[in-house]
Amino acid sequence: MPRTGLTLAAAVLTGTVALVIALVALGNITDFGTNQQFVRHVLAMDTTFKDPDLMWRAITSHTLQDAAYLAIIAWETLAALLLLAGTALWAVGLRNGRLARARLLSTLGLLMIVLLFGAGFLAIGGEWFAMWQSKTWNGLEAATRNLTLAGIALLVVHLPGTTAPRHGEHDA
Fold first, then answer.
1. Between vectors from CA 53 to CA 47 and to CA 59, what angle results, nearest 5°?
2. Beta strands in 21-90 (DSSP E)
3. For tag attachment on the chain, is the N or C end more exposed, with fewer CB atoms within 10 Å?
């Protein structure tokens, strides 16, 4: 049987990240225009210092900007679905001790969040498109918050004792 405290912590943290990213995706779908403008301004780099040495990186095509935004929404939605499924499997695993699939789905969803907010928002948005220079369209604080929460959840999910395979079950 798994260590209930760690397993419960993994379930709660996975569920918390699932809720956050599901609400983010829902907000982006139901209030499409708000963050569409955010993505457009970040990619256009029109609220940065407009340093000529950096401005060649700007993407000003609305078609490409909107394609990037739609990809972000699809990525968030898929991550939310994986994390919701992982949360459900953690809950079941608390009763039956089978946790390998919960850990696998949680890991996949959490890594998607790490990639989105770490690589996507902090590295690409923050550094490549110089989002840090914008006073108005700067999502670095929110990205850091989401990256931190997902990173902590990922660590807890992989702590020894969050999965204890039963006889004949292989850990993922």
1. 50
2. none
3. N
124-155 in b/e burial notation, b at 16+ Cβ within 10 A?
bbbeebbbebbeebbbbeebeebbebbbebbe
The residue written with tokens 């608390």 in the block is 94
Q: Is the pTM of this model over 0.85?
A: yes
Residue 3: predicted pLDDT = 63
Mean pLDDT estimate for the chain: 95
Distance CA 146, CA 73 (A): 15
What is the rounded distance in angstroms from the CA atom of residue 77 to the CA atom of residue 9?
23
User: Helix, strand, or coil here: 17?
Assistant: helix
Nearest to 130 by CA among 60, 61, 43, 63: 43
Q: Give the integer Cα–Cα distance in Å for 120 and 149.
A: 16
162 vs 156, higher pLDDT:
156
**Orientation of helix 62-96 relative to helix 4-30, angle to 10°:** 150
